[in-house]
Design brief:
The protein has helices spanning 26-34, 129-135, 148-161, 182-192, and strands at 2-7, 41-46, 67-70, 73-76, 102-106, 140-146, 165-174, 196-198. It has 205 residues and is an alpha/beta fold. It has one domain (2-48, 81-203): 3-Layer(aba) Sandwich (Rossmann fold), CATH 3.40.50. A six-stranded parallel sheet has the order 5-2-1-6-7-8. The protein has a two-stranded antiparallel ribbon with strand order 3-4. The longest helix has 14 residues, at 148-161. The chain starts with a strand and ends in a 7-residue tail after the last strand. The mean pLDDT is 98. It binds pyrazine-2-carboxylic acid and zinc ion. Residues 8, 13, 46, 78, 146-147, 150-151 line the site of pyrazine-2-carboxylic acid.
Length: 205
């Protein structure tokens, strides 16, 4: 059994949002094109408290894009984004999610960020996504979303490590690219970890 895993297709990561990813909204049409092919759909949702430690606003004198030590882990500082219950935390309104899609929030603990949909960055807590997928008999995941170099990368790497067969839908992803090439390097890291890289929708299982 396969599932479509949609990573953080939220307004704050789209043009006009708090942490806008270039062409981030182009991912929605790709998701909508694939959704009818999948009986099982899972979504991750970045879901931060207003005082989350990944926000530059919580670190006096620090700016977005800088690195800090956050309780022992290296952390990129971000603008305030995906605050629980805010408009920016909502999925894009054009996304045609089935009513039975399962949604896994992440990033609720202010002391640690959570790029992966499976575990926080310190790997201290699981979101429950892995168990939920297994309980539904899912062995293969088709992954797309935002952003290639952060949440998509860490979600796909964890999925592969957990033993799922993983296919990345490149046209359904966009990168933050804080440094030029970050997105492309993330794709190569995923490929090296055994993730199948689909550059065309015709290559999907
Ligand atoms: C993400 C930075 C901060 C992502 C989430 O969804 O890739 N990036 N929070
Ligand atoms: Zn976040």
């Amino acid at each position: 059994m396969k599932a479509l895993l949609l990573v953080d297709l939220q307004l704050d990561f789209m043009p006009g949002g708090a942490l806008a990813v270039r062409e981030g909204d182009a991912t929605v049409a790709v998701a909508n094109a694939l959704l009818p092919r999948f009986a099982q759909v899972a979504c991750t949702q970045d879901w931060h408290p207003a005082d989350h430690g990944s926000f530059a606003s919580q670190h006096a004198g620090r700016r977005c894009g800088e690195l800090v030590d956050l309780h022992g882990l290296q952390q990129v500082l971000w603008p305030d984004h995906c605050i629980q219950g805010s408009a920016g935390a909502r999925f894009h309104p054009d996304l045609q999610l089935p009513a039975d899609a399962i949604v896994f929030p992440k990033g609720q603990d202010r002391t640690v960020d959570s790029y992966s949909g499976f575990f926080d960055n310190g790997r201290r807590n699981a979101t429950g996504l892995g168990d939920a997928l297994r309980a539904r008999g899912i062995r293969d995941l088709v992954v797309l979303g935002l952003a290639t170099d952060y949440c998509v990368q860490f979600t796909a790497l964890d999925a592969a490590e957990l033993g799922f067969g993983v296919t990345l839908v490149v046209p359904g992803c966009r990168a933050v690219d804080l440094s030029a090439g970050d997105g492309d390097r993330a794709i190569e890291r995923m490929r090296a970890a055994g993730v199948r890289i689909a550059t065309d929708l015709a290559q999907l299982p």
